[in-house]
Amino acid sequence: MNQTTVSRRSIGVTFPTEQEANVVVWAPRANQVVISVNGDAHSLPLASDDTGYWTVTTDQLKPGDLYSFVIDGEKEYADPASLAQPQGVYGPSQAFDTRTFYWEESCWVNPPLDEYILYELDTYTFTPEGTFKAVVKKLGYLKTLGINAIVIRPVTPFPDSRNWSSDGVFLYAVQASYGGPAQLQQLINACHVKGIAVVMDLAYNHLGSQGDTFSDCRTYSSRKLSPRPGKPTYVSEAQREAGRRYLVENALMWFRDFHVDALRLHAAHTLSNPEQLLKEIRQKTNELSTTTNRHHYLLIENGVNLTSPVEQGDEQASPLADGLDQMRQGESYTTYCAEHELSRHLTKTYREDYLYDEPFSTVLQESFDRHSDTEPASGKSFVLFSQPYKSPSAAPPCSDQTISFEQLKLMAGSIMVSPYVPTLFMGEEWGVTNPFELDQPTQTESKRSDTPAHPALPWEMLDQVPNKTLFEYYQALTSLRRQQSALHHLNPKEVAVIQHKEQQTMLLHRWHAKNDIVCLMNFSADPQAITLPALDREWQKLLDSADPRWSGPAASPDSLSNADTLTLQPESIVVYKARQ
Fold first, then answer.
1. Could you tell me if residue 52 is left (phi over 0), alpha (psi between -120 and 50 degrees) or otherwise beta?
2. pTM of the complete model
3. What is the pLDDT of residues 245-255, one digit of tens each?
């Protein structure tokens, strides 16, 4: 069996020509493997190559055909490398030719990661339709907001038709109700035409019921095949190698066949031998970039609660972190219980490359993306966001506390001026504080109708007050970040932070070349005085969350002199730029 090649996918069903299909499946314990096409009783036998893979080249399988594998004359199984499951995760697979799509984004250039302003969305709940086509219709809205990159949450098939229990079984396939792989290609093409990069969210840590091991295609036919509790599972080196190949080929497929700009990997440290896996993905991605002249980013998601105390020794640093672009998960809205804690940890986050203080692995020192060729060796590109992101390990929110409009503006500003790549969650720009926990119909409601209500973002809120004001405020923030080089150049050596714990205030100073920016933040519920540092500068105001323009209580001065003192309004942020 040939090893992974960057030019084409070598597992599953592929179409090297219009007349022929290559079929490759991993089934090391099988004595016989045949492929059934469209339920035909005359199944096509596959040949074993003595490495656990079974193959056949045939002209009897065409794009659009349904197929399944029959192992040892028993039950039929779906293809673990299927690209489409139109009848659900328990049905047959559908052949799909990724080469037939006509891409119109020949002028597209993936921007530097530093310049990303990310917008994370869930296809099912972003629009009432819950489809890729409906997302395409919202791209103009996202451009108006100032977004230049979107994160698409996992699109792999899920057992429940309402997207309430996805377990990431078919990592190559695209959910049929979203529009399948063809519409996903159309969405990504439309994003690039609009100047928007696409980040695909991948849950490699949910690799089937066997966890991070890889058995054979029977693993993917049922969730009942996991080993008994307490019973050890033997995992051969061949299985580990097959598992690595399955994931490496998957990453390459999204880059090569779907033109995805970046991948965000969930909890990769939970996989078996993650350093070797990620290093191979990086190496193969570099090979692909050499042949296609397209740059792709690899992002690691690392969940951290910004409002939970994380001091040296509290947590062990991920061995994957060194050299990676990490995704940080913040919970600043629903866990806004202790403003002084939030202020303290934002200070730590702004000041340092890592929230964790432990040494990082050197194995991947040069494996994953950095900001630029000139970035200091210690630099990492954290992705910071302010919306609550629910996960099993997340601390329970302070549900008894309401979130004021001023708090919303303060948190949005603190994220947008941070020395990390900012992320907005869908709907937060007009005040939706739990976008991924939208109301779902009850079982009783579902029984009353064949088409139960589809939980989706309340887009009607966008035309209401103060939601429209908040949206315009977010537009000002994204514009500010794009226009000021000190904000979108992510050099950790061009950042200074002054925190006043008693007053719960913070001064963030960022600079790049001749661009100097100071961001003054008050996290307390009372007005607080803050003094600018003596930098021999005159300062001109760029943004003020407390300005009446944004329904705030009072505006700060339009200009300040060196070492001036001003009074910050409660829960507010003011941004000044040094005059030339």
1. left
2. 0.84
3. 999 999 999 99
